[in-house]
Design the sequence.
């Protein structure tokens, strides 16, 4: 049974985009328009520190260095450990994502309104779009995304390129998405595209 059918007719809209696409910017704008947004990636950062059982399982998988001396998730160490080890990454995701799913379902029960948005980087990779009423992809030209991440995170061109190479190709995401927002032309155009899609969604459920 799909999530959106389980929660009294509330429609779950998946919101995704690759690194440097502007996904978080769109999510914040949707919140400003008055719609609840669940930030999966941000919540995951909290859950790996707050869920004691999950912490134990991660340490069993990755060793004591997965957490620092203060018991805080060692994101840099873990990222380096799993970056070129897909099997290890899959095992780690298999621990974290069910915990996030449980947290998300609790969050849903406290929300009002018919449209709820779920922001997540791995919407299509984890097939989470199958549990959504509709999906929205935020995308942009690769060179523009590269420049944004280099400026934002202080990474080199090659470092960002390696991250992008690990992600699902944009063309494949575009094929899977119900709606696509192209973030190439500045904030005003980005907001206009977002508002247009939300109006279409609202007209569908009324």
Sequence:
């Amino acid at each position: 049974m799909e999530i959106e059918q389980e929660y009294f007719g509330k429609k779950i809209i998946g919101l995704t985009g690759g690194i440097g696409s502007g996904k978080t910017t769109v999510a914040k704008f949707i919140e400003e328009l008055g719609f609840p947004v669940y930030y999966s990636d941000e919540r995951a950062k909290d859950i790996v520190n707050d869920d004691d059982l999950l912490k134990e399982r991660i340490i069993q998988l990755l060793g004591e260095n997965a957490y620092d001396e203060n018991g805080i998730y060692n994101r840099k160490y873990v990222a380096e450990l799993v970056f070129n080890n897909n099997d290890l990454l899959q095992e780690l995701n298999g621990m974290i994502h069910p915990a996030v799913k449980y947290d998300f379902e609790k969050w849903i029960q406290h929300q009002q309104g018919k449209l709820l948005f779920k922001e997540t980087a791995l919407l299509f990779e984890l097939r989470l779009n199958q549990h959504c009423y509709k999906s929205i992809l935020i995308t942009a030209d690769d060179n523009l995304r590269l420049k944004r991440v280099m400026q934002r995170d202080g990474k080199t061109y090659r470092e960002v390129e390696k991250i992008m190479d690990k992600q699902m190709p944009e063309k494949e995401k575009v094929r899977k998405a119900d709606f696509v927002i192209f973030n190439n032309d500045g904030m005003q155009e980005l907001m206009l595209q977002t508002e247009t899609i939300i109006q279409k969604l609202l007209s569908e459920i009324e």
Q: What stands out?
A: Strands lie at 11-16, 37-39, 115-119, 134-139, 179-182. The first helix runs from residue 3 to 6.
